[in-house]
Amino acid sequence: MDSILVRGGGELNGVIPIAGAKNACLTLMPATLLTEEPLTLTNAPRLSDIRTMTQLLGSLGAEVASLQDGQVLAMSSHNIHNHTADYDIVRKMRASILVLGPMLARDGHAIVSLPGGCAIGARPVDMHLQALEAMGAELDLRDGYVHARAPGGRLKGAVIEFGFASVGATENALLAATLAKGTTVIKNAAREPEIVDLAQCLRRMGAQIEGEGSSIITIQGVDRLSGATHPVVTDRIELGTYMLAPAICGGTVECLGGRIELVGAFCEKLDAAGVSVEETERGLKVTRKNGRVKAVDVTTEPFPGFPTDLQAQMMALLCTADGTSVLEEKIFENRFMHAPELTRMGARIEVHGGHATVKGVEKLKGARVMATDLRASVSLILAAMAAEGETVVSRVYHLDRGYERVEEKLGACGAHIERIAS
Ligand code: EPZ
User: Closest Cα partner for 48 from 407, 422, 398?
Assistant: First the structure.
């Protein structure tokens, strides 16, 4: 398992290109199952999660060609010969559950392994199943798989109301509703930019959708969808992550492709902490205005609130803030695993349930630390770049799931960071 060595100290100055969104691409790719015509995604990120989804779609019979060094995914699903998403693939990546809705909508039956939990929480899929049952699906849960079928081979439009604005459940329902017979209304729908991007792609394919980005999405089912070419939206989590690099190290970094509307709540917190964000023609330019940043309190919420996927990275910044910050994690039940690792670097953090209290220190100290999940891994790298001395982050396979070429992008701005193969 590879590790990453970081020698801390020094400002960061330069330009970082932001890739297409992992969490948009992972819901756009299953859309290929909704049509027999070619669906091509451009601006695709080069990540291990994308390779896992490619493997899953391939196991169903879809063809996914990765072109232009992985930035273009040319997909075709004219020959789906297998309707079972196997546990061995699904357990590696819970977004695999997103093939359930499209397979049901296309052929009226599907068998998908339950994804199981992961490091940050139990992560059930009850709302995904609730939505599909509302659309007429008959579901039988046995031996760890969902056996699903649509009576008469076709789902029907329904009114679906989620108890929580679940991103994945909204995506599964939206994908399935495009081919259902009749009208579907999704209430308390997730409003994330990745949902908006999916709706825009499906509309290019001929779907009839209104309201994406709001809490109520209405879909008129159609009999068939055509192919399309669609650019994956910019990754707002990668964007926020790299905006924190100059904030924690000092200096000025321009994040190419960044847009304020993707990170509105996050930028409000950066402003309160004393970090300046300037919109340029190419993206967002970030500068730490003076010395230490100020402490700020953060609560994670569904979009447009502060994203849970930037909580770990924000905690790294607040470990060096002047003052005490309180972070409240309201989306996942166990998303503070980066805290003990940051504490090994001299951070002063107390975790009580869903709250973490961070007393800022002048300087963190390099140490050997371990990545526990995707976003925790990159928060350790941010902290390491600002720390005194050397840090070795182990288990960076977590990192490679969601961040392409981290050492290149940060190294180009002056960070002393290298990958140690082992
Ligand atoms: C998506 O996960 C993202 N993953 C996550 O990003 C992100 O943290 C999350 O949305 C919230 O923004 C992808 O898009 C592939 P949810 P998802 O359904 O869809 C509970 C990353 O780092 N829940 O909005 O799983 C669930 O347990 C990843 O890139 C149910 O109880 O998120 C969680 O506590 C991590 N039942 C909360 O809702 C359900 O049926 C939010 O889940 C579904 C979810």
Answer: 398
Q: Which of 210, 231, 252 finishes a domain?
A: 231
Beta strands in 188-341 (DSSP E): 208-210, 216-220, 228-231, 251-256, 275-279, 283-288, 298-299, 324-328
CA 232 to chain centre: 13
Among 186, 213, 231, the domain-final residue is 231
Q: How many other C-beta atoms are found inside a 10 Å radius of the C-beta of residue 69?
A: 7
CA angle 403, 202, 91 (to 5 degrees): 45
CA–centroid distance, residue 217 to ligand 1 (Å): 19
* Residues at CB less than 6 angstroms from ligand 1: 22-23, 26, 95, 121, 123-128, 164, 166-169, 308-309, 331-332, 374-375, 402
- The number of distinct structural domains making up the chain is 2
Quick one: CA dihedral 152, 155, 160, 164, positive or negative? positive
Active site residue 118: yes
Pairing assessment for the beta strands 348-352 and 324-328 based on DSSP bridges: unpaired
Q: What is the pLDDT of residues 162-176, one digit of tens each?
A: 999 999 999 999 999
**CATH number for the domain including 212?**
3.65.10.10
Query: Which pLDDT does position 117 carry in this prediction?
Result: 67
Length of the chain: 422
Residues 155 and 190 in one domain: yes
Tell how far the Cα of 201 is from the centroid of ligand 1, in angstroms.
21
The pTM for the full model equals 0.97
What is the 168 CA–ligand 1 centroid distance (Å)? Answer: 6
Write out the residue range of the structural domain in which residue 412 sits. 3-19+234-420
Residue identifier of the C-alpha nearest atom 35 of ligand 1? 309
Kindly tell me the sign of the dihedral angle through the C-alpha atoms of 18, 270, 290, 390. Answer: negative
Give the model confidence (pLDDT) of 14-64 as tens digits: 999 999 999 999 999 999 999 999 999 999 999 999 999 999 999 999 999
Helix residue ranges, H only, 136-230: 167-177, 193-204
Which residues face 139 on adjacent strands?
Answer: 148
Residue of the CA atom closest to atom 27 of ligand 1:
123
